[in-house]
Automatic annotation (TrEMBL), chains A, B, C, D, E, F, G, H:
Organism listed in the record: Jannaschia pohangensis
Protein origin, superkingdom: Bacteria
Protein name in UniProt: YtoQ family protein
InterPro entries reported in the protein's UniProt record: YtoQ_family_protein (IPR019884)
Any matching Pfam family: Nuc_deoxyri_tr3
Length: 151, 151, 151, 151, 151, 151, 151, 151
């Protein structure tokens, strides 16, 4: 069994690298995908390729629709969608991804600190697991794949 | 043609009433649904009916899952989902609803002020209309139903 | 909003009547469906209409497939599926209905006593509400429809 | 043609090993999946990874939802779902899996002893084959793959 | 509960009228649909409306595709599809309708005499009921709707 | 049986009115929908409601996405989609609607003059009927509903 | 591009071998599947594995449902379904397969002699190609894969 | 991540070759498909394989339905559908393909010159990217796959 896992959400800490390293160390059969994590490229990709826009709304629209080619593909082909909410920013795109994953029947894992618990209650309620750390995500993938409780 | 419209998101201003009044005044054939907007009832419904929980996480889980019976039904049976982002709170549930609506192929209308433009770019990019006021939602519904530009 | 509710499971107590009476008393806009609750008719319907079978397996197969015309229709057209597990019998058909409801994305409410908690953990985990009494089901329907916490 | 087969249900006898050994001996092109069969791990996985719960209901909910990541993936990606009902326990999860498989249009094979015939009539009625032994499952897979009646 | 029933197949006896009369006599809440049963109109509708064709293949293609507007609509919106195989003709369109109904997950009732039993075994195997007479169809609809065994 | 029919395509002749009048005269049980046929309103609706755009591309994008709320709803809820290609303009939106209708499994009727035959061969090939006049559409609807060949 | 092709229908001539040989000779990238073509095994597989039945109806039911595991898998995973109607027998299973293929949106190729043209008009009308010979099927697959008209 | 890309539309310039060469040069993991681009073969394939037709309508119908086996397969299995509108011809098949892609939820990229902007506004409005050159398509695929802005 190979699991396809999409890693959505916060892009300013190295949580994705931690999960990849943990899964590699455990020898897990997982294929990862996720959004473009270069913040500047993600913001400007639309106008860089398709031409500048004087209005910020259309600048953003061009980029967001271009990024959607990648994110929709990742979510639609994933078995599991992990969505991490960090400490900063609005992160509405993370919740938006979680909503898409839920509606598509994907197994949803939500990752956030205790301070966001009440605000994320609707998202957590749709999840099959709610965790705080990258290590827990690795443990879950190890258990799902191998029935192994490594902790 | 009757349109079924789900009004998601912010619950602390009277934007829903404005839309309902506007549609009534214009004689539009629209049926509205939406979440429970009594904040206290929405937070406590789970434990009120199914028993208290000492742990806030499960208190919230019980309520959020119970509310999901209503919100999923509303979104799944809607032709159009309007999601409003207000000035306060995290509003992750609004973005989560928008993600569900997008994945289900619903026509999505997003309503927010200019200050949230950049943070909502992924949600706006999935929408068929982005507006600021309740009056604009009424105008859109009037146009969609009757081909009338009332402005 | 009208809710369509399928009442699956145990057929030897009057829990369905309690829910119907409770919803009627509360004036709720609910349409109910459910299996044939006449145990003898349900067991013998196949052979009664399509001819006797000497082998009990085919006697039961004829009846079960005939009953499936009604139960599938009820589950597929329901917004909410309530599944009650009683004190007696194997009740595998109740769990089978719950599995169908879950896979079809129906809102699932499970109703059972505390003694069945561990054995039903997979079914409960797929539910949006787990209750013990008919009165709680009525309260849930009242809340989902009207946002009212009658308790 | 490779067949993907999910082996659901009873975890206290070695029927899965018998099927795997039989298919291997016959050189069949089958890929198997199934639930975690370590009973203790399956019961405690949720709290082991995501933290202890004083209330047994939530202890079980955490585990059951975590196990659902694996079982849903297995059932959804299977061509054939085999569900075995053994002699002991309630086995509602087995019937729940069978219901999911039926609703998803999977080819369902049910395996049980004669004493459970009447209680399983609804599940059997949804199946394409009803058998008693592991050897019969191997014969079926051999026939489906190769058109060979090995008996 | 209203049932929508499509009556497919043989058009040279009055079995449809028998079922309609029987359901009316029993006061059943059923809505019927079916193909055009005027054989000449059904054969020639395409060329009558869209112009003559010298080649019989295209004469038939025009008619068959036009009839498909009605038959697909009937099958797709039905809860139950009844397919009757009579004594004469090839009746491949009846088996074709049954295949569509099966693939769409409709409840399938097959009606035929004992002499066709072996030739129809694949169709019967996909059905929830196999009967010989119109009266049995009425009894089934009465049972499915009202849980009543009128026989 | 009520048929829901979406009338897509050319908006500069009165073919829609002819079909409506013909169906009314024949007493047919048909409900019609279609795009906004006021050319100016259709072009400018987006900026009229949501604010002017200096760039024609975004002016058109706003309008086209707003019109999509109406056209998608019409196509998705239709039983039959009639697409008319007239003599003038590119009419790519008509072919685009036909593609959506085909992919959604709608019964497609295409209406055009003989001079467009070769250029429309892919669209015609997906249709269940190809006609030249409004009167033929009325005859088809009469036949589909009533089995009547009025010509 | 690899094409997956299901070869349904008549099992008493060597048309399947002709197609396989033709595709091999042309070096086409095609994977074939089909029903069990050993008539005796296909008729008796159910009772051979799951036990004898005194009643021919259940003898056939057991076999037909077992064969359905293979045929449904083949049809559901195919890109193209070729259905051949031969000279003998009722061949209702062939038309039943064609109906399933049509409802699942598969590309349907029908193969039959001129004498069956009128009786198969509904099946032909749902097909993307109607041919008489195995060589034509090979030519079609060659064209679809390589854009080559070998004739 | 491998992307599957269908290249629809104009067949008289070498834009497909430019995209293939550009992706090869950039080392992108993309698999391409598209229609048969030999205009004569595409027009005549039906009659070449299945026999001549005196009537141009049926000549074209045979070819268009045969080509649909390839084009539907390509669109349905693609992650991204690129549709190019050139300078000449009606190109209704291109818009028809775009409509299919949109209804199937594919990521749509539209490629055309500025002069077609207004006429293509409905198609552009359904797209995630609108470009003018093959080089831009390569840049988009590079960005979607690798997050790289090569420009």
């Amino acid at each position: 069994m190979t699991l396809s896992v999409y890693l959505s959400g916060e892009i300013h800490t190295d949580w994705r690298d931690e999960i990849l390293a943990g899964c590699k160390a455990a020898g897990l059969d997982v294929v990862f995908s996720g959004p473009v994590t270069d913040h500047a490229a993600s913001d400007d990709c639309g106008v860089a390729i398709m031409g500048a826009e004087p209005d910020k709304f259309w600048h953003d629209a061009k980029g967001a629709r271009l990024n959607a080619i990648r994110t929709r593909h990742g979510i639609e082909t994933a078995d599991i969608v992990v969505v991490r909410f960090g400490e900063k920013y609005r992160q509405w795109n993370a919740a938006f991804d979680a909503g898409q994953a839920a509606a598509l029947g994907k197994s949803l894992i939500v990752m956030h600190g205790a301070d966001h618990q009440h605000a994320l209650k609707e998202v957590d309620a749709a999840a099959l697991a709610v965790v705080e750390t990258s290590a827990q995500v690795v443990q879950i993938l190890d258990y799902v794949l191998n029935g192994r409780l490594s902790g």
